[in-house]
Amino acid sequence: MSDHAHAEQSPGSAPHASHPPTNYVKIWAILCVLLVVSVLGPMLEIRVVTMVTAFGVAVVKAYLVATRFMHLNHEKKIVPYMLGTMLAIMALMIAAISPDVMKHEGTRWENTAAKESVKRGMLLHPGAHHDEKAPAGEHAAPAPAAPTAPTAPTAPTAPTAPTAPTAPAPAEPAKH
Amino acid sequence: MIRPIATTRSATGVPTGRLAVWWVIASEIVIFGGLLGGYVMHRLGHPDWANQAANTNTWAGAFNTFVLLTSSLAAVLGHQAAEKGDGKKAANFLYLTCLGGLVFLIVKSIEWTTEIQHGMTITSNTFWSFYYTAAGLHGLHVIAGMVIMLFVAADAKKNKELQRVENIGIYWHFVDLVWIFLFPLLYIAK
Questions:
Q1: Using the beta-carbon criterion (under 8 Å), do B50 and A78 form an inter-chain contact?
Q2: Where are the domains of chain A?
Q3: Alpha-helical regions (H) of B118-161
Q4: B13-188 CATH fold
Q5: ipTM summary value
Q6: pTM
Q7: Residues B130-148: pLDDT tens digits?
Q8: Cβ–Cβ of A24/B77 closer than 8 Å?
Q9: Which of A15, A42, A126, B152 could connect to A158 by a Cys-Cys bridge, CB 3.0–4.6 Å?
Q10: Is the Cβ–Cβ distance between A132 and B54 less than 8 Å?
Q11: What is the distance between the alpha carbons of residues B149 and B146, in angstroms, rounded to a whole number?
C-alpha cells in the first residue's frame, strides 16, 4: 500500500469538493421540526409516545446530522466501519454489565444498598421544581412529589433523610 | 513550503488530517457511550430518579438543542464556503458557530447556577452526579471546539488551510450529536 495513494488538497486551496449539493438549511429546518416533536410528544405523558418522540426522534436527528452535516454516507467505507466497531464494542460492554447494574437481586445475591436507595428516593424529594409544566411520571415515579416552593431557602425536606426507619442511612450508597 | 503530513498523505483514501478527526470521534463514542450507557442502565434500575429528573429545565435544554443545531448549520455552511475557496466567508461562518457555542454555555451556566442554588449539586444524588458529569464533559468539548475553531477561522480568513474547516466542522457536528442524545435522557425522560 502506498503512503501516497490519494494525495490531495493543494496547500491552502479548497479541500476536495466531492460532496453532492445539499440544501443544508432545509436539513436544519427538518431538525428543528423534529426538536419540537421531541419536546411536545412527551407532554402527552403516554409512555410509548414518549419513547418514540424523545428517543426515536433523537435517532433520526442523529442520522440526519451524521449523514447530511458530517457527510458520513459519502466518506470512505473505512470510516463508518471504524465508528461502527466502536459502537459495537460499547454495546457489548453495556450488554455484559447491564444485568448487574439494572437488577437489584438474583438467584444468590441481593443489592440491598440499591434497593434501599430506590426506597429512599421514592419517599424523599430533595430540591424543588423549577420546571412546572414538565411532563412527569414517565418512569413510574409515584406522585411527582409536590412542586413545593421553588426557592425554599431552608429546604427542610431535602438532605436529612428522615424516612429510612432502619439504619442511619449512609449518605449515598457507594454502589449507587 | 513544507507541508504537514496530515495534508499531503493519505493511505486510506481519506486525508490523514480528516482521518485523525474520525479517530478522535471514534474514541469519543466510547467515552460518551460508556457514560450515557451507564446512566441509562442506572436510570432503568432506579425509578426514583424520575423525582430528580423532574427538576431539570426542559425549555432550557430545548433552547440549547436549537442553538447547537443552528451552530451546526453554520459549521456546515462554513465547510461549503471553504469547498468553494471562499476562506473569508468560511471564517465568518466559523465565528457564527463559536457564537452558538457561547450562547449554549451561557444558558448552561444559568441553568446550573439555578440548580445548585436549589440544592441540586453533583453530590446530592447519583442522578445529579451523572447529570453534571455528562453535561460538564459535553460542555468541555464545546469549549475545546470553540478554541480550535477560532484558530482555524484565523487561518481560513487568510485563505490558508481551508481543509481544516471541514475537520473542525466534523468535530462540532459530533458535539451536537452527543447533545441530541443527552437532551432526551436528561431533560425529557421524567
A1: no
A2: 19-75, 76-123
A3: 126-157
A4: Four Helix Bundle (Hemerythrin (Met), subunit A) (1.20.120)
A5: 0.93
A6: 0.80
A7: 999 999 999 999 999 999 9
A8: yes
A9: A126
A10: no
A11: 5
- Which residue, B147, B25, B148, B50, is CA-closest to A118? B50
Nearest-angstrom CA–CA distance, A3 and B152: 26
In the block, residue with C-alpha cell 418522540: A53
Averaged pLDDT score across all residues of chain B: 94
* pLDDT band for position A125 (cuts 50, 70, 90): low
Question: Would you mind telling me the total number of residues written for chain A in this entry?
Answer: 176
Instruction: Give the number of other Cβ atoms within 10 Å of residue A159's Cβ.
Output: 11
Residue A147 burial (10 A CB sphere; 0-12, 13-18, 19+): middle
Domain residue ranges in chain B: 13-188
At A63-116, the pLDDT tens digits run: 999 999 999 999 999 999 999 999 999 999 999 999 888 888 888 888 888 888
**Cβ–Cβ contact A170 with B under 8 A:** no
- Subunit contact A101:B85, Cβ cutoff 8 A: no
Q: Which three cell numbers stand for residue B50?
A: 424520575
- Are the beta carbons of A67 and A75 closer than 8 angstroms? no
